[in-house]
Write a structure and sequence with these properties.
2 copies of one chain form a homodimer.
Chain A lengths: L7 H8 L3 H8 L7 H14 L5 H8 L4 E6 L5 H16 L3 E6 L4 H13 L4 E4 L9 H8 L4 E4 L9 E5 L1 H14 L5 E5 L5 H16 L9 E3 L6 H18 L5 E4 L2 H13 L9 E3 L16 E3 L2 H17 L9 E4 L2 E3 L11
Parallel strand pairs in A: 1-2, 1-3, 3-4, 4-5, 5-11, 6-7, 6-8, 8-9
Antiparallel strand pairs in A: 10-12
The structure holds a DNA duplex.
DNA sequence: TTTAATTGTGCAAACGTTTGTACATTGATT
DNA sequence: AATCAATGTACAAACGTTTGCACAATTAAA
């Protein structure tokens, strides 16, 4: 049952030529006559030849595999990025290995080790929330393995990166709330050592400044928003309960996480607080769940698939330009505000 | 910047021994003296030696990579299975390549080709909805590459498989509805050429039979439930609207898909129909979204992560027993009914 | 003390490609 | 007719491991 593998040599033997000629013929080398090429192709077909990419990888020193590191694969955000990456690299003959860091520094390190060990041709990663040291990433760079960061990046690493313009997304979201007449907007902020949450906070602040709304530090609630869905929903509930305790309700909540927003909405609804009439909501990330709840959650879409596309593109570019005059750049994707019921104070539309 | 790779030979040179000894020392071969081993390990450490797994793969004829095919990665179901697979194979030094078939026959074929080309040591797959020919899977078997199927399987292929007992899940769900006093239960069924939907239908029928409820073919609505979330939600809405048109409302809906259930719920809620009082709902798959809506969607959890675990385990077993006396088996996982508000007619609890 | 088993290493051939260099043939240019 | 470029192919050395076999040195058994 186990068939003997047919190699390039078998083809050579059949045609009474050398393996090298066969190799070149298969790869369409210009110095091989078309006659020979045709013959080789025919025999290859006949024998059902399958090139051994491992051998090729060994010889060429490249594996045609690229590694992707996601903090967690069960968020639609990352699933979508992955899909975007695959879309473009497959067309170039690359394969993708996906690793999850579970947002842990140690696993992230381990992932990188594993990927380097199997000689990936590049690594596309989003950094784990725990990570504050970046030596493992630097090692990748030093080994000459292309490294592309997406979404959660670190500026000190001088590498290609693609992120969404979270400042703008946040700015749009808050401006929208202001336009709906909100004046007391609470912000569920994420931990500020992570770039995206910093930017979201900045956008929140600037949007209000520009509309003459003074910033009240009391309204900014910083929490670790990176946990399992369930836990972040819980967190949202807790924050909502705290707000209720404090008495003075805000007229809007802009959450840096969809799940925290949904948790808070649950609590408010249970207490009979009208959404959006009394409190309007905007989340962040456009997780699908937001479209199922009632009212639908207004949120910021980050064009995640395109993000994956771009990351892959950056990788391909980097590979092509070799180490030559390659200078890292950061691609900024503009996010889009998705308006649903949760923020429409002025009636529908 | 680009450091020269340090090989087994460099270590050998340093210690004035041969590469073969180093190789054996590294792999802890019994015939190598502990002194030598220690020395080799030290030097390896010192030189920061990274084994070249490609070379090893070439020599040994195995890549330590296993391929997983999922119909689509952006369903929490599959994300979770993948996670389960990884959990176990990583500990054995394997890496995972994930491919998406997008539920298309042609892509599934292409995925398999790609995986075979890079010489994966095994393939773990769930078959695409389009697939009705299985030659590509047979080819895998014939090449001696271990093949494990999960969830969506095909009986004619004689391979290791792990599925959930969909019959039981469905049976539990419908029994639960009957216990809640439902007598006219509509079933949103999936296409019957797919094993899981067949089983769910059978469970639906048997549960009622055993409780003396006659089966009304009118209540069984067969639809293709495998599409993007959005589209299936739409489908659910359509089916709900049709039910409304027909006049006579059922007192429960058991949907083979969470999303279809949620779509239908939306419509009913919009029409002011009380859930679960007038119509109770049970979905299938325990997609996270179901916990966010109101009332929460009662559903069937399939222990997806464990499913991944099992699939991986089957793979490992199969590799170990070699082609010897290995005889394929099917593992059946018992699903669990998750009761939420959408089905509790008898008040809470 | 001879013989046999055990222990520790070395040799060299794989694994299946790719690729630099060399060689022969052909056709074109002087 | 001599020179040169272009064309088509072969040779052989990589790539970094692993592994069967051989062989020496040591230890145990007789």
């Amino acid at each position: 049952m186990k068939k003997k593998k047919v190699t390039i040599r078998d083809i050579a033997k059949e045609l009474d030529i050398t393996a090298s000629t066969v190799s070149r013929a298969l790869r369409n080398h210009p110095r091989i006559s078309t006659a020979t090429k045709q013959a080789v192709w025919d025999v290859a077909e006949k024998l059902n030849y399958q090139p051994n990419s491992i051998a090729a990888a060994l010889r060429k020193g490249k594996s045609n595999i690229i590694g992707a590191i996601v903090p967690t694969s069960d968020r639609s955000f990352f699933a979508s990025v992955i899909r975007g990456i695959e879309e473009v690299i497959r067309t170039e003959g690359y394969n993708l290995i996906i690793c999850q860091s579970d947002d842990q520094y140690s696993k992230e390190q381990a992932n990188i080790e594993a990927l380097l060990k199997i000689q990936v041709d590049g690594i596309i990663a989003s950094v784990a929330k725990e990570t504050i040291k970046f030596d493992h990433f630097r090692k990748v760079k030093e080994l000459g393995v292309p490294l592309i960061l997406y979404d959660r990046v670190n500026e000190s690493l001088d590498v290609n990166a693609v992120v969404t313009n979270d400042y703008l997304g946040s700015y749009k979201a808050v401006t929208h709330l202001i336009e709906q007449g909100c004046k007391r907007i609470v912000h569920f902020a994420g931990k500020q050592h992570i770039n995206i949450y910093q930017d979201r906070l900045k956008g929140y602040i600037d949007a209000q400044r520009e509309h003459g709304i003074p910033i009240d530090q009391e309204l900014i609630i910083e929490e670790d928003l990176i946990y399992s869905m369930k836990r972040v929903v819980e967190l949202g509930r807790d924050m909502a309960n705290n707000l209720l305790q404090m008495g003075k309700l805000p007229d809007a909540i802009f959450s840096a996480s969809d799940f925290a927003a949904m948790g808070a909405m649950q609590v408010f609804k249970e207490k009979g607080i009208k959404i959006p009439e009394q409190v309007a909501f905007v989340g962040y990330s456009n997780d699908v769940s937001g479209s199922f709840i009632e009212p639908g959650l207004t949120t910021v879409d980050q064009h995640t698939k395109r993000m994956g596309n771009m990351a892959a593109q950056l990788f391909l570019e980097q590979v092509k330009t070799k180490t030559k005059d390659f200078t890292p750049r950061k691609t900024l994707l503009n996010p889009e505000l998705i308006v649903r019921g949760s923020s429409l104070k002025n009636g529908c539309d």
